[in-house]
Amino acid sequence: MQTSWLLALAGGALIGAAAALLMLTHGRIAGISGVVGSLLPPGAARDRGWRLAFVVGLLVPGAVAAVVAPEAIGASVRPLAWVAVAGILVGAGTPLGSGCTSGHGVCGLARLSRRSLAAVLTFMTTGIITVAVVRGLS
Amino acid sequence: MSLVLAGLAGAVFGVGLLVSGMTQPAKVIGFLDLFGDWDPSLGFVMGGAVVVNLLALRATLATRQDPWFDQLFHLPSRQDLDLPLLAGAAVFGVGWGLGGLCPGPGLVSAAGLGQAGLVFTAAMVVGMVGLRWLRTPPR
Q: Which of A21, B3, B51, B126 has its CA 20 to 30 A from that of B58?
């Protein structure tokens, strides 16, 4: 139990450091949904270079982990059809709400943004309700 | 150099997600399972990330007029709470609780050829493109 708290803290510190590095070098918010979404049509952003480089960088540890630490990539605990619905909701909700866990959570809270605080409280609440409802149904 | 550092930021971010447990849907759902078998450990991910980022961001903005590779810091200035923000966040939260993945961990899992990550990421791209297409109807 204690190990998982320490790993969570260490991983969180790395995520915060990465977000800070992107702000220092490129002056950009490390919001994954925004960085990725702006690469997609319609109306993809013009500044694709740093976005693509960031996404490629993000993917490399995933590919490496699959070989050296496969347990780090957990299997789904839900039917894959649910995961597909979840993906569509996340895909639609994040551009509508201008961000996700990284853009509003890691970056927005660090900027003391009230929009981000409202977004974090909202998605935490609906996430908790969703898990409670699924638990109640199963 | 600019692209190398953007790639490095992405890689450090990805390692952080893997180390922290965010790429394990069971852990994420456990964190959101407040009224069941609650596992608060992932709260430390957000806590650690926000504290480190807050301190580094303050230091950056206090010591520099502009970032290394751009003319200005692209910081959102809006303060208003509007319906799209809250509705979008609410929809995102439902998806997060349903699948146990958010965009970063979804992409990292997909890169590791995790089945859930691949399905999630493909669907997420459909959702992103679909929403943007609906909001900007072609003329």
A: B3
- Is the bond preceding B84 in cis, omega lying within 30 degrees of 0? no
Give the C-alpha separation, A69 to A57, whole Å.
18
SS3 B30: helix
Contact B41 A57 (CB under 8 A): no
Closest-CA distance, B106 to chain A, in angstroms, reads 9
Q: Are A134 and B81 in contact (CB under 8 A)?
A: no
What are the tens digits of pLDDT across the range B98-126?
A: 999 999 999 999 999 999 999 999 999 99
| pLDDT tens-digit readout, A53-92 | 999 999 999 999 999 999 999 999 999 999 999 999 999 9
DSSP B74: -
Query: For the segment A54-64, what is each residue's pLDDT rounded down to a tens digit?
Result: 999 999 999 99
Residues 6+ apart with CB under 8 A from A31: A99, A100, A102, A103, A104, A107
Dihedrals φ, ψ of B102, to 5°? -115, 180
Between helix B103-111 and helix B115-135 the angle, nearest 10°, is 130
- Between CA A56 and CA A50 the distance in angstroms is 10
pTM of this prediction exceeds 0.95: yes
Q: Where are the alpha helices (DSSP H) in B1-139?
A: 2-20, 25-32, 43-63, 83-99, 103-111, 115-135
Q: Does A68 touch chain B (CB under 8 A)?
A: no
Distance from CA of B54 to the nearest CA of A (A): 4
Question: Do A90 and B95 lie within an 8 Å CB cutoff?
Answer: yes
CB pairs under 8 A between A and B: 506
